[in-house]
Amino acid sequence: METNINFCSFASTQGLSRRAFLKYCTTLVTLLGLPTSAATQLAAGLGGARKKPVVWLSFQECTGCTESFTRAFSPTFESLIFDFFSLDYHHTLQAAAGEAAEAAKTEAIEAGGYLLVVEGAVPLAEDGACSTIAGHSNLDTLRRSASKAEAIIAVGSCATFSGLPGAAPNPTDAVGIEQLMGLGLLEHRPLINLPGCPPLPEAISATLAHLIVYGQEPQLDALHRPRAIYGNTVHDRCPRLQFYYQGKFATTFDDEGAREGWCLYELGCKGPTTHNACPTQKWNQGTSTPIDSGHPCIGCSEPGFWDTSGLYVSLKPSAQTPLPGESDQVDKGRKLFDDNCVYCHEPNGQDLSTPLDEVPRAYRERGGRAHRMQVEDEQWRALVEYLESQR
């Protein structure tokens, strides 16, 4: 493909009508939490956009994230954007191999101005010998590749939070991209985390489209996830939510509750603590989700989901040990903040301008799009005490 062709010209050669293109842009802005009027701006930006170089690295992973993105449903609008990029390096999709593949990657890195997509965790044990590419450890490859990247997009739970490779006992000392930056092993670059095992294909395509049009990352939460996609829990938008409030729960996979579509909470559903857009976007051409199909959410887009608890262990309240130096009350407040507030506010609530003793009243009066939790007076006292301990 010519390097100076814009997206509109390329899309027309693929049989994509302008009406379909605008409809697709409307879907993207909705997923990104932008006003509907932004669809026109997105269409104009994408329509005039030039090819964007992309280097896609695959480390400790199963290639499920690539599979998710490339199998976006017909008429494969996501693949149009994907094909429109100058995919200069990708282990699975590239035609080149060996020295030719490495030369293409080196050329792209030296030119700069590319987006770096990372799929998979990075092992640190044995000086990185647990996973190597062309004789180089994953960490060395990542360092070189990130040196001139405009942004890094960590795709999938392995790249974001170390995922399955990082599950206990973590024999390869696998870590995610953000953790590498925190350890000082990787230069800090603009980072977008798209967790999930795998993530929704629309989450990937919407994020890439935002970077092309606006030249910056979408609004992110404290875990560097796009808020519009990961700002609500699976529980908030669950198709079985009514049964949760009615106290109707399936207790086995073949009982009356299961057959009637009751809530899967007691079968280990992690929906109440999992932030993702699965219930609204769905999978396989918008057909279904695990919960729609009768299986509880396993919480795959949350940090450490493999080690949090058994897949079929209920999230029923249990005693937890406070962090060192914390009282039980402060610990309760911290858990409440981490489970709910951290997705819209800075860590430890440092961005709150409302006096702490007035937070409960302001919450009740003004609320907000994410303020859907029911908070008891005792919980408010714990939350305020925790916030005061952080000042």
Provide a compact summary of the structure.
The chain has helices at residues 7-13, 18-31, 38-48, 64-70, 77-84, 98-111, 138-146, 157-161, 177-182, 201-214, 227-230, 241-246, 256-259, 278-281, 305-308, 328-340, 359-366, 377-389, and strands spanning 53-58, 86-90, 114-119, 122-123, 132-133, 136-137, 149-155, 174-175, 191-194. The chain has 391 residues and is an alpha/beta fold. It folds into three domains: 7-230, Rossmann fold; 241-308, Cytochrome-c3 Hydrogenase, Chain A, domain 2 (Irregular), CATH 4.10.480.10; 328-389.
Structure, explained:
- With 391 residues, the protein is of the alpha/beta class.
- It folds into 3 domains: 7-230, 3-Layer(aba) Sandwich (Rossmann fold); 241-308, Cytochrome-c3 Hydrogenase, Chain A, domain 2 (Irregular); 328-389.
- It has 18 helices and 9 strands.
- The protein has helices spanning 7-13, 18-31, 38-48, 64-70, 77-84, 98-111, 138-146, 157-161, 177-182, 201-214, 227-230, 241-246, 256-259, 278-281, 305-308, 328-340, 359-366, 377-389, and strands at 53-58, 86-90, 114-119, 122-123, 132-133, 136-137, 149-155, 174-175, 191-194.
- A 5-stranded parallel β-sheet has the order 2-1-3-7-9, sandwiched between helices.
- Strand 5 (132-133) and strand 6 (136-137) form a beta hairpin.
- Helix 4 packs across helix 10 (201-214).
- The chain is globular, with a radius of gyration of 22 Å.
- It starts with 6 loop residues before the first helix and ends with a helix.
- Residues 318-324 have low confidence and may be disordered.
